Amino acid sequence: MTNKFLAVLVFLISQTTIYAQNNPAIQTDRPDQTECPFIVPANHFQVESGFSYEKVTTNSSAYALPSTLIRYGVNEMFEFRLIEEFVAEEIYKETSTGFTPLTFGLKAKLNEEKGIFPEMAFIGHLSIPDFASEDYKTVYYAPSFRLTMQHTLSEKVTLAYNLGAEWDGFSAEPTFIYTLTSGITTGKNTGIYFEFYGFAPQNQNADHRFDGGFVYQMKPNMQFDISGGVGITENAPDYYGALGFSFRLPD
């Protein structure tokens, strides 16, 4: 198993070296909660995967083992997206595990950055109830959408934000979403971010959170990240931590 893993890793590194020459450096939708407005280059696959631990309350916690986003660039305007997540949840020492509903989606470019107008894209997803483990099937199809926007403030600083809504697959009530993040380039291949974000259910109190993280691009098409965050309001999860790895390959 170890030899197979090393062989795959060597292959990925060699491929990123070959194909990075004609494409911009990888842009990912992780580790922050703010989705970026950039489209994966045409005819390329991008895989963004991560492991996380979240302390929800004193008596409950959740793991993503892992959460994976697969993106495919159709052209300079569109990409297709597929999300799968294997989770483990512990509530009062009772543990459940399984796959959450498979989610399909797309990202569409809306606007290039020009003056005060940000780089902008629309992201839409739909979760399929039956494509999940028995304990995690939802009653209804669950849509979600976001408008994602980004400004370049300087050579080293960007400001990005999302506005959107999502449904949980069990009721018709939406949960509204906001994010606001600042990305800072700290070196040739490194960067950090700080972010505020939150969720506002239609008929419940909103919860607000803060997080931050670090990214390192080992190759132009390969990135490692680490992040963590805390809840600001009483009804938000206590804290979380995550590790991730992303890479891009041609089809």
Outline of the structure:
The chain is mainly beta and 251 residues long. Helices cover 7% and strands 58% of the residues. The longest helix has 18 residues, at 2-19.
Structural write-up:
This protein has 251 residues and is mainly β. Helices cover 7% and strands 58% of the residues. Strands 1-2-3-5-6-7-8-9-10-11-12-13 form a twelve-stranded antiparallel barrel. It starts with a helix and ends with a strand. Mean pLDDT is 92; it is low at 4-20.
Q: Could you outline the blueprint of secondary structure elements for this entry?
A:
Blueprint: H1 2-19, E1 44-57, E2 60-73, E3 78-91, E4 94-99, E5 103-111, E6 119-127, E7 142-152, E8 157-166, E9 175-185, E10 190-201, E11 207-219, E12 222-231, E13 239-250
Antiparallel strand pairs: 1-2, 1-13, 2-3, 3-4, 3-5, 5-6, 6-7, 7-8, 8-9, 9-10, 10-11, 11-12, 12-13
Shape summary: globular
- State the secondary-structure class: mainly beta
Low-pLDDT residue spans? 4-20
Over all CA atoms, what is the radius of gyration? Answer: 18 Å
SSE order, one letter for each helix or strand: HEEEEEEEEEEEEE
Largest sheet: 12 strands, antiparallel, barrel
Percent in helix: under 10%
Please name the defining characteristics of this protein:
251 residues; mainly beta; 13 strands; 1 helix; 7% helix; 12-stranded antiparallel barrel
